[in-house]
Amino acid sequence: xxxxxxxxxxxxxxxxxxxxxxxxxxxxxxxxxxxxxxxxxxxxxxxxxxxxxxxxxxxxxxxxxxxxxxxxxxxxxxxxxxxxxxxxxxxxxxxxxxxxxxxxxxxxxxxxxxxxxxxxxxxxxxxxxxxxxxxxxxxxxxxxxxxxxxxxxxxxxxxxxxxxxxxxxxxxxxxxxxxxxxxxxxxxxxxxxxxxxxxxxxxxxxxxxxxxxxxxxxxxxxxxxxxxxxxxxxxx
Length: 236
Fold this sequence. Notes:
The protein is about 35% helix and about 25% strand. The chain has helices spanning about 20-25, 45-50, 55-65, 85-95, 100-105, 110-120, 135-150, 205-215; strands spanning about 1-10, 75, 125-130, 155-160, 180-195, 220-225, 225-235. Strands 1, 2, 3, 4, 5, 6 and 7 form a seven-stranded mixed beta sheet that branches.
């Protein structure tokens, strides 16, 4: 799979600018989550009131990447999705309370790309993925298929929300909430190759490791479930 990363943006609590991410990449640490809300002031108040924090994270990184472009395909990936919304629905069920149709419709995995399509007025092909710890690579693979079919650009966003404390024994791959947005175009700057292989599991999620590679231009290999993903970059 070959492609260019035309632009990228990322958000986490206290980490928004490119310089802040460059500084983080030099000495990665778990940042404190104090429930900061990403800036989505470019969306009208009545429209943004339904956006969860996960959705705001996605819009925060994706909107500036797409702002000056015509309609384009969008790949959204998240292993865990809207865990706060789904937990609230489960609690309602446990109390035998009626479920909110609005909350249910916004909890499904493709709700965010639905909101994106409505707010952007964009009816391009959009896909929501939920893979394992290599969700990023599966999203890139999907985007490359669209580029090979003639799409001039594809927007890829992978985001994870902090899970509620009840999920702590089961979710161990979200050190803090984050969103990473990539604008991919056809080209040969990057190559992603899949092979069978086992190796050490990284301390950080794959998207955060990619940010480190983007900031510091170092090689990148990800292992997960007998899969070896090798990222290589052609530097001119």
